Amino acid sequence: MPPAAKMYGFVSGLSAMLALSCALAYTVVHQAMGMQHMTCFGGVFGLFGHWTVATKPFIEYQFQRDVAYVFGMDARLTERETAYQNIEVYAHRYFGHVLVIDGSLQISERDEANYHEMSAHVPLAYIPEAKKVLVIGGGDGGALLRLLEHKNVEQAHLVDIDMYAMRDVVSDYFPYLYQAYTDPRTKAFAYDGRLWVDEQLEAGQAGTYEVVVLDSTDYGAAESLFTDEFYTRLKKLMAPKSILVANVDSPSWNLETVVAVQNQMTRQFKNVHILQSHQPTFLSGHYSYVFCSDEVHPMNTPIDWDAWKAKNISTFYYNPDIHYASFILPESVRGSLTQGARLRDIAKDTSGEPTFSKADFYQSPIHFVVNPDEGDDEDEDESQARDDD
């Protein structure tokens, strides 16, 4: 066996041993600290702060369901400890740059569009001429960027308690998303969302926002944003015809959370529906949001699809069929909810459904990591094929 191969095998073996050690620590940490998520990123050379071609396992544990996801990351690009959270960015050959907050994977360049497009395009399909939108949380800029793709939006406000740190990380490692911060329609605030809402109401801004996106980390992590009092006051900031969309959890693995969120929001809004998306890098791959409005029903309210098509917004995940289908939930989920959508309830559209060509769809500028000793020619061919498409 060549010396290089022996060395690679040795490094890989030690990396695997470190991953096993993290797995053994899982039970201890869970029992002692009550953590919901834990991560481990290991490799023998990682211990010395130097990354090699050897794959290093990044392990995200979900204690509630006793499962773990393992990603073979090529490198940890940065780690920043702020007053509010731990922020890490990793590089992965397939998923590109990966953002992790407090040990929980938030977005990857490969599939962040799934999550962010649903947060933004779904509500704006019903209110195509909305002028003023608000994002609370969402410091990565993804939801804000998709809202800004609608040229009718004149003012877009983002409120994130750790905004400055998130803006710097996004600028360095997610330049595509950073465009949201540089758009002249954007005003970003480094502020606690609950306090910011209170101050806006005191300043006479009630009835202002037509679309609100609540984009937090795990549901319940930012405790001040999940109280009845907060939602009552947030609703006062919203226009009479308006929509709130908030991220929730996995309806497959954490159905009790999804049910609790719908029950809570039903105390504030008339129409409260759960919608879903396919999010491969999230634990379970099945994710959900809550759609809240007094005047807009996700199925009964007609959508002007001609207006959507006229905006000429390129998408990676969202389209009119996905829009309606996202509200059609598995029976195991729908049967536990107080409000559920049916295809037969879709309002008839006079405009007809728009069509999309392959060229219409957005392709993310993923930062692929190529090992210097393998795969260069193959990856270059794949990159060229994407460019040709």
What's the N-to-C terminus distance?
Answer: 42 Å
Percent in helix: 25-40%
Give the tally of structural domains.
2
Please outline the major beta sheet: 7 strands, mixed
Brief sketch in words of this structure:
This protein is α/β, with parallel strands linked by helices. It contains twelve helices and 14 strands. The chain has two domains: 3-106, Roll (Spermidine Synthase, Chain: A, domain 2), CATH 2.30.140.10; 112-360, 3-Layer(aba) Sandwich (Rossmann fold), CATH 3.40.50.150.
Task: Describe the protein in words.
This protein has 389 residues and is α/β, with parallel strands linked by helices. Helices cover 34% and strands 24% of the residues. It has two domains: 3-106, Roll (Spermidine Synthase, Chain: A, domain 2), CATH 2.30.140.10; 112-360, Rossmann fold (3-Layer(aba) Sandwich), CATH 3.40.50.150. It contains twelve helices and 14 strands. A hairpin with a 4-residue loop joins strand 2 and strand 3. Helix 3 (142-148) crosses helix 5. The longest helix is centred in the N-terminal third of the chain and has 31 residues, at 3-33. It is globular and about 50 Å long. The model is unreliable at 2-12, 25-39, 43-55, 354-363, 370-376 and 378-387 (pLDDT under 50).
